[in-house]
Amino acid sequence: MDANLSGLSDLAFEGAAAGYLMALVCHAVETASRRARRVEPAAATAGVPIGSAAAALGGASAGAVGSTAVLAPPLSGSGQPAPVRPARVPFGERFGRAAVLVTAIGFACHVLALVFRGLAAQRPPWGNMYEFTLMITGAAVASWLIVLWRAKARLMGIYVMTPIVVLVFLAGTVLYTRSAPLLPVLNSYWLIIHVAAISLSSGVLMLSGLASAAYLVRDRHDRRVAAAGSAGGDAPAGVVTRLPSLDKLDRIAYRSAIAAFPFYTFAIMAGAMWAEVAWGSYWSWDPKETVALVSWVVYAGYLHARATAGWRGRPAAWISVVGLATIIFNLFFVNMVISGLHSYAGLN
């Protein structure tokens, strides 16, 4: 074991955690700055003729063509048109852009933490729960950065980064274990195939479930707004009014699940083949195997319902959220509470 590389891995992990936490704070500031506000009519300008309003702007002339008023640009001291200053980027927008930047920096540190961990132990860096959680959260963040690039859905960042920060915090505290050689049962080439596939696909499926959760929040708000409007009341204000559209959230959830599901299927098949080599049986109904199968059935049902029955909206989103719950349950509860053949994750 290389203690120096192990120390560098821990430092890189701390950098990733700090970057994700800062990104979450920036997303929260942007979300708070975009809270819906009621716009009251300006009583001072009500009923004032356009010509008078133009004169009040500092001597700008106003001409009317039919019913259209044209305001002349303000003049500088030399009689030339005053230079137009570029519009300032809104306060919240700047924090939103900063959130994307620090997320990318945190992800770079995240990758370095895994690379240094593997070099220090001279093995693939996913041999215990700490490393496995790093793989899943890294895959989720990578998928999120791709969504930011392709779908421009930055306003759902607070819904994505909150669970990422929680999982990274748990990895660095509750799940952390020092870099060490693999247990004999894990020392197989199947470790590279099975664990890499299951962790990466689980991270992408996690993003799919988070997008579905955001969909349900946005849908609930839109229905409240519609109900308030039909009753003649005021629309409720809140942070969810600035989430991406329902259609965009639905596409993110669906396409993420489509991309990850084949790899998740392959991971379960590879795990069965590894189990036959290690334990003499392809399937033992181990708790982790069973919950993984439940997750597979849930996402298979989600994709089947979308493709054949044409399910859209809340029903499909709820299935995806249930799938997310099974993945989180399998990641933490099964490994930390239930004893089984997969109890070699470094916690006991």
Q: What is the compact description of this entry?
A:
By secondary structure, this protein is mainly α.
Structural class: mainly alpha
Please report the total strand number as a whole number. 2
Strand line-up of the largest beta sheet = 1-2
How many helices? 9
Strand % is under 5%
Give a quick set of tags describing it.
mainly alpha, two-stranded antiparallel ribbon
Report on the structure:
Strand 1 and strand 2 form a beta hairpin. It contains 9 helices and 2 strands. The two termini are 21 Å apart. It has one domain. Helix 1 packs antiparallel against helix 3, helix 4 packs antiparallel against helix 5 and helix 7 packs antiparallel against helix 8. It is 66% helix and 2% strand. A two-stranded antiparallel sheet has the order 1-2. The chain is mainly alpha-helical. About 10% of the residues have low confidence.
